[in-house]
Amino acid sequence: MAASQLGIDRADVRRARTLARQVGKPIVDLARRHTTVSVERATLRLAGLGGADPDGTPWVNRLADVVRADTGLEHGVSLPVWDALLRGEAEDLLTLAQKAAAGSVTFRLPEGRDSTRAAGASRKAVAAGIRQIDRQRVAREKMIARVGDAPSKPWIYLIVATGDIHEDIPQAQAAAREGADVIAVIRSTGQSLLDFVPEGATREGFAGTYATQENFRLMRAALDETSRELGRYVRLTNYASGLCMPEIATLAGLERLDMMLNDSMYGILFRDINPVRTFVDQRFSRQIHARAGIIINTGEDNYLTTADAVEAAHTVTTSQLLNEYFAKEAGLEDWQLGLGHAFEIDPEVPDSFRLELAHAMLARELFPDAPLKWMPPTRHMTGDIFKGYLLDGFFNLVGAMTGQGILLVGMMTEAVVTPWISDRDLALQNVRYVMNAAGNLREDFHPSPDGFIATRAREVLGEAVDLLEEIKADRSVPGQPPLLSAIADGTFGLMKRPADKGKGLDGVARKAPGYYNPATEILEGTK
Amino acid sequence: MSLIRPYGDTTGDGMVQLSFTLPIQHSKVAEGAAVQLANKMGMDPALVVHAKPMGEGFTFFVVYGRVNHLVDPSTVEVVERDYPLLTPKEANAAIKRSLRRRLVVVGGCIGTDAHTVGIDAILNIKGFAGEKGLEYYRELKVVNLGAQVSVPQLVEAAREERADAVLVSQVVTQRDAHLLNTREMSAAFREAYPAASRPLLVVGGPRFDETMADELGVDRVFSRGTTPGEVASFIVHRLTGPRPTTQEKAS
């Protein structure tokens, strides 16, 4: 770390990271001891099982459900499934799934040589999927080398969300032509709570478009075309969150998505998904993202939309530190960490701009090699579009002054309409003006070490360290990782989320001795 | 009350500003088309102060001009909502003041309906349409039972939690399932509770008609596009204000 512009003591930064590790490690241990239905289904997807039955239930769900009923979830599905294939129950996975769904296959847990052979066969099948993810990563790198990368930082991030993939495509292509470096396709409301991934190209969603493998493929192909046309690679983003996080991460890797929203605690706090389910799913999904060369975007902005952005500033820092620990443990590198933060302080608060700058500079200094994802104002966008346009300008200015990697473009019509063509154009003019006028201001701007900004940044870091200390000391449930207890106590946001409550808990199992998952084995490189 | 017209910088100047996009390449003709639109909207003279190409085949305009219309405030009709919209802060304060405890809301999807989109949009802290869900309200205790809750389960949960209000979401409307389920639900609550202590019953879903509350035996029906703030405001209004003496007719 270069000398601190904010007068931050390196020892404090080390202390913060040590605490994040101490708080995070027991959670990782817990994640290693468990599996989930979605982790197992993701493994089947890596082995090439796709499609859905006539009712739209994916074959991975049908197969995993039958295996679970026969042998339990605690051994994983791989050994029973490939044992059945080796026993000649079906010639391939799809046929096996169909037969299982019809009730004409019974699964068993193979032993001895049968078990070894099943493990070998499953590893071979899953390795093919991982090779496909590797090929897509190489394809991305080659395409960037050939057509060129986004011309400058921050990358301009724009959203499309019509609900219909065939409407999204021309909108996304238009947004890219207008200057977007990253296109995010917002998901349908409530997809995070579906315990299956819908199948095929979808044309109706609630305030967004379903994340499906086919939708991913269609959009990526369209943006490849636009990338070639524009001479710069346009990145595609979706959401690896909710109950199917591991499967969606897998599909994103297979279809060459470039960024995924993936937060360590968002689903727990904001969607009431069981904490253990979330942490297990999250670790697997991050291992996939690491392998696929996908940049994750974390969701710290959400803390500021529900709590006061000044009082809760340190919860953002705390969450960033935890997200960093979990991400690195899963194999992600600094360049893949789009740690989130947002411009959400009430503009009526005195010195609100200086506070925003202090918080953003702190994030930049703590994570110098991470791209950082900078999220625009939403809470204090009132419908007064003129004031909103000014606020977005100040948001862009903080972005310029703190070297953000990914900038989600703020719309003056936030909370009024879904962006019109003119809103998007005006918003991009705002970004370009600020970047052009003040993009290099960083060179000249050095806050006084005793000044308001540096003092505030140190204060927030201090509060984050205190919060981590408090979490680490939480022994309210003996034997439970302190972070789980802290989440149960309502330490983050206002939500109390006990470890034995929440959606998706019935899809979690403690691994039995002899549990086997070829995907985890390959991703962790243990063999 | 006197007739009025828009005010720019002089009384009676009638000046307004307008911006819009036309699907046409920028040119003199495009600017003329913008003036024509403004004229047809009653702006005369209309001055195109800004015209900018946006994307392929679109032009954005800012137009200033004078309108000759007069408005008469005395003839304006306003449909008043029968409950005030409260911010979360105001809702919390009202509950604290009048109940002196947290207000308990039990919610779920009844019948075979597995679509929790609606109930989650209203209850989850994530919320909907830029508004936080009811979980965000400090003075509300929210129990979300999720999908496929049977009516007896719902009644039991309401009793156990001492619910002040029960929220039911229905998305599936095949063979009027939403109406049948709602009637079954309201009948069960009528049977299980004395009239005075029955929780407030609220149903919502995209295909409900908001005027059907009486017919369905519930206190309120919400339809498409309802936000958490509206639901919270209604509940707080009905449970912390003076009780209506007669059955309120939904207008």
UniProtKB/TrEMBL annotation, chain A:
Q: Which residues form the D-Lysine 5,6-aminomutase alpha subunit domain?
A: 6-521
Which Pfam families does the record associate with it? Lys-AminoMut_A
Name assigned to this protein: L-beta-lysine 5,6-aminomutase alpha subunit
Species for this entry: Nocardioides flavus
Automatic annotation (TrEMBL), chain B:
Q: What domain of life does the UniProt record list for this protein's source?
A: Bacteria
**Matches recorded under Gene3D superfamilies:** Cobalamin-binding domain, D-lysine 5,6-aminomutase beta subunit KamE, N-terminal domain
Q: Which residues form the B12-binding domain?
A: 102-246
Query: Which InterPro entries does the UniProt entry name for this protein?
Result: Cobalamin-bd, Cobalamin-bd_sf, KamE_N, KamE_N_sf
| Signal peptide positions on this chain | none
Pfam families attached to this UniProt entry: B12-binding (PF02310), OAM_dimer (PF16554)
- Entry's SUPFAM superfamilies? Cobalamin (vitamin B12)-binding domain, D-lysine 5,6-aminomutase beta subunit KamE, N-terminal domain
Q: What is this protein called?
A: L-beta-lysine 5,6-aminomutase beta subunit
Q: Which organism is it from?
A: Nocardioides flavus (ex Wang et al. 2016)
Q: Please spell out the taxonomic lineage of the organism that makes this protein.
A: Bacteria, Bacillati, Actinomycetota, Actinomycetes, Propionibacteriales
